[in-house]
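Study this pair:
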Amino acid sequence: MSSLVTLERHGNVGVLRINNPPVNALGPELVAGLIELVGQFEADQSYRALVVCAEGRTFVAGGDIAQFSMPGFSTAPFNRMLARLEKLDRPVLAVLHGTVLGGGLELAMACHYRVAAATTRLGLPEVLLGILPGSLGTQRLPRLVGVSLALDMILSGRPIDAAKALQAGLVDRLIDGDLTAAGIAYAEELLAQRTGPRRTSDRTASVEGLAADFFEKALAEAVSKKAAYPAPQRIVRCVEAAATLDFNAGEEVEARLFEECRISPQSAAMRKLFFAERQATKIPGLPGGLKERAIASVGILGAGTMGGGIAMNFANAGIPVVIVESSQEALDRGLALVRKNYDASAAKGKMKAEEPPRRMALLTPSLRYEDLAGCDLVIEAVFENLDIKKEVAARLGKVCKPGAIIASNTSTLDVDVLAQASGRPQDFLGMHFFSPANVMRLLEIVRGAQTAPDVLATVVKLAKTIGKVPVVSGVCYGFIGNRMLEPYLRESEFLLMEGATPTQIDNAIQSLGLPMGPCRMLDMAGLDVAAKVVVERGKAGGLPTDAGYRAVVQKMLVLGRFGQKTGAGYYRYEGRNAVADPEVGKICAALATQFGIRRRDDISDQEIIERCLFPLMNEGAKILEEGISYRPGDIDLVWVNGYGFPDYRGGPMHMADETGLDKIAQRLDHYAQLRGNAYGYWDKAKLLADMSAKGQQFADWPLK
């Protein structure tokens, strides 16, 4: 018998207890144990009721996702066990706590009754992995809570709290204290009242209040908004089956459509990202048993858009923040923007009305550096200029208390230079938030040459506390994301000078699922900002000697075409609407003449995709080769969570595997011949060349 599940006797009530830490995931061994013990209960008529519960901090939080990719994987054994559990002739009660997700909720719904701790959250998040619930979740949930709520829960993947679950009929009672004892007491109450089994599969899914074309419209919306994803359309069809077919027929529909999702390349990519996110917090070389530094208060230097957004992350997590600015006007403007963001969230129902003032109360404005002296972590978010940031780092090194962590929100600058300027390099690292900082999930954590191990461990853990996906990078220009962005932007500008239009380039890139192409992206971010980054890098001696390098964006700076903010950039703007501007073609043609670049009229969308993305992937290989990134999955997380790379493509390194490393190597050689390679733009990373020659993939990492 499996040690992961036990059957205990409490009078005439059996207690089936799951214990598979940390989250009681439904792996094969646990499922086998459930099958065996449900059989024991079934055969022993001295048991009058069964209570299903779990040890630890949560009930079953889902299936073992790693199993989904295993040869011969099937949900059938678990599903047959659920059917057997539901058909038992005595009451079966689930006692829920923590996060009851995926297969955990499907297990609970196969039980006849459900009680839950008030802090429980329940949901079916499979859509976030490119699949749909495969253990009758699409059939039982509509029968318990009605079609409308069930479809919303399954399509969004968002969990609901216990109070809403009680109101919807998903749970029967909220409990507190000793949860197992409360579950046994409820089972005994059912027995005293002679209340027998209540099988979810016997119910009818409520369609009350739904329009006749409800499913037709839901399917059309899934097609129009989520066409690239395998699950949404199939989820609608499964829930429609729950509403229109008997349970057995609906089960067949779900099984077939689940398998279609599971074997799809999109789901495989999304599942890889799931595991990459969990691997990203495991930092090689950190000593075991490391004690993190306590972070009870945070200081932010700079109350601009970025500084205010960073402050919101900590206030949202209940951590007090001191915000320092150089002028009262800037301070007032920054806090007003924070308050506006909070009020907008409350107006949309994303937070309760009392939350904006509560979170604002955690922010202490100041005009004095000295007020940062009591903070455990201080993040500077001043202008991206090396001299300014060095001066700020030096000042913080003197003001901050011993043991405080000092961080720079730089996106490109040398963190080791800033760390030395602080005089406390062991306490210093980079914390690169992405804009808008209160929304974007990525946090690039830049480990300096002398960053203390406990500092790194503290910030990685803190990132999770504030809801970020942490990815650790070594020190180099642009770290992981912006370093890879550079060849992508380089080629987009050369393509413009060769004759491609901003619209053609953006449409080609967006055809891959990116939310916007390079021209729209820079217009939105500000061409002045992008150009000044190039200029600053040139001052530091980091640019190629190629006079035409990033020439377009620098010309836009000179012309005052800064993008949306000035009404003209790569496009002309009518409000927020981008309109093709013939003037851009003239500017690029003149630059082509100036730098001796041949104009062409035969640039295809495929060439645009290859020239922008293959150098980006090649740069990712160089980053791995140099040890800047620990894993290919870390790079994929950066691009999916920081740059909008579509999750269903798994990130650029996963996409490189799907494309074929041999093809990428061949096309890099092709463009070296087509364009010339005087500046090494098309040099293959040694790692990429070696892997291509050996038939390896980034998925094989670490390489043998």
